[in-house]
Amino acid sequence: MPEKIYPVTVPKWGIEMQEGTITEWHLEPGSPVEKGQELVDIETDKIVNTMESPASGTLRRQIVSSGETLKAGELLGASAAAEADDALIDAFIESFVPADASFGVGDELDSGDQSVEKPAKESSKVGQADQASSGSGGQPGRASPVARRLAEKLGVDLSQVTGTGRNGRISTEDVETAAAKMKSPDKTDSEPVAQTATAGQRLSGRALTQARRMVESKQTIPHFYLSRDLDMTRALAAQKASEAPLTAVIVHAMVNALQAEPAVNAHFRDNALFTPGTIGINIAVDTPEGLVAPVLQDLEDEPVSVIADRLKALAQRARNRELGASDLEAGGTTLSNLGMFGISSFSAIINPPQVAILAVGATRSLPIGENNSLCPAMSATLSCDHRAIDGAAGARFLAALQDALNQS
Question: What distance in Å separates the CA atoms of residue 291 and residue 304, rounded to the nearest whole number?
Answer without folding.
Answer: 24
